[in-house]
Design goal:
about 130 residues, globular, 6 strands
């Protein structure tokens, strides 16, 4: 899993969105995943989510692990003060900030991950060359 793949999965919502909950057990609904940000700052801006009965609008940051938040010093960076959701592949550490966390590891299709790995590990000219008939 790479952070860019995680961003792709989030951007196009390629995960099971039924019965989403934060790491603290609150119900979560994604209204709009946000606009992908190619500049400095959180990965997605202008997102809209509902946690419990409260609707939130703001930024979303993605990491492979929860601990990457602190490792990247986001807790000290003003650019990250409007983050409304921290989306991670693996929630392996407590986050001191009160930002809700969504773990995606069990929500993404294993087939999608296998196909991605197959495409990335192909040594051919183009990944699909074996499927092209001449």
């Amino acid at each position: 899993m790479t952070e860019r793949l995680l961003q792709f999965i989030w951007q196009f919502q390629y995960f099971n969105k039924s019965e989403l909950t934060t790491s603290s057990g609150e119900t979560l609904q994604i209204i709009f995943p946000g606009q992908y940000n190619t500049n400095q700052g959180p990965d997605f801006s202008e997102a809209k989510i509902k946690i419990g009965t409260t609707t939130w609008a703001g930024n979303i940051e993605l990491h492979f692990k929860t601990s990457d938040w602190k490792k990247h010093d986001h807790h000290k960076d003003e650019n990250y003060k409007n983050v409304i959701l921290h989306v991670v592949w693996e929630n392996e550490a407590e986050q001191e900030d009160a930002i809700p966390i969504l773990e995606l590891k069990e929500k993404v299709s294993k087939i999608l991950l296998q196909r991605y790995e197959s495409l990335m590990n192909t040594a051919g000219f183009i990944p699909c060359e074996n499927g092209i008939q001449t």
